[in-house]
Design goal:
Strands 2-1-3-4-5-6 form a 6-stranded mixed β-sheet. The protein contains 6 helices and 6 strands. It is an alpha/beta fold and about 180 residues long. A hairpin with a 4-residue loop joins strand 4 and strand 5. About 40% of the residues lie in helices and about 25% in strands. The protein is globular, with a radius of gyration of 15 Å.
Length: about 180
């Protein structure tokens, strides 16, 4: 991610009244770091979780999915994160604009893995939401490169959920395309 562009976008995110719970697994965790590396994170982030194992993710979503890296799972994770945001702010007696944001991904690894390298990112605010899906060209990037792309999608999704028009430029390869579905 471009350092200056990321800093500027995160600064804009922190300047909104939105507060978010994030749940990220597989890739996209650099977005959490980016949010905390800019002053104002406490105005935006309520909670950030990384349920990395299958058991931890099953526990988070309160169900066993046949396929964790899917558009449906990302949407379910975002809805659960939104509900967590509601629960945690009710405890504080606050009423901000709340967002649940998720990322589930399967990216380059040090072992043979079947299937595509892909990511699904979703946000939900209790009324609206969107899911972004990307299939990456397998073997074209290393793990760090795929993590960078996933984290940029996470920050772009959070920016959209916050009503911000700016986006980070995604370093997509030819024939790669982020598909956006609203819900």
């Amino acid at each position: 991610m471009n350092g200056e562009a990321t800093f500027d976008l995160v600064t804009q995110i922190h300047s909104t009244s939105a507060k978010a719970c994030l749940v990220i697994t597989g890739a996209g965790t650099s977005a959490i770091s980016a949010l905390f590396s800019v002053a104002g994170a406490s105005r935006t982030v309520i909670d950030a979780q990384v349920p990395y194992s299958r058991t931890a993710l099953d526990s988070y979503v309160e169900t066993h999915a046949e396929q964790h890296v899917s558009q449906d799972e990302a949407t379910l994770m975002a809805i659960k994160a939104f509900q967590r945001a509601v629960d945690l702010t009710e405890l504080d007696g606050r009423t901000e604009r709340l967002i649940g944001l998720s990322c589930t991904a399967a990216i380059a690894t040090d072992r043979l893995r079947r299937g595509e390298n892909r990511a699904h990112v979703a946000w939900h605010d209790g009324k609206h939401g969107a899911t972004y899906s990307l299939v990456m060209k397998k073997g074209a990037r290393d793990r760090a490169g795929e993590e960078t792309v996933c984290s940029a999608i996470v920050l772009n999704a959070l920016a959209e959920a916050c009503g911000i028009e700016d986006r980070l430029e995604l370093q997509l390869l030819p024939d790669e395309n982020v598909e956006r579905v609203t819900h």
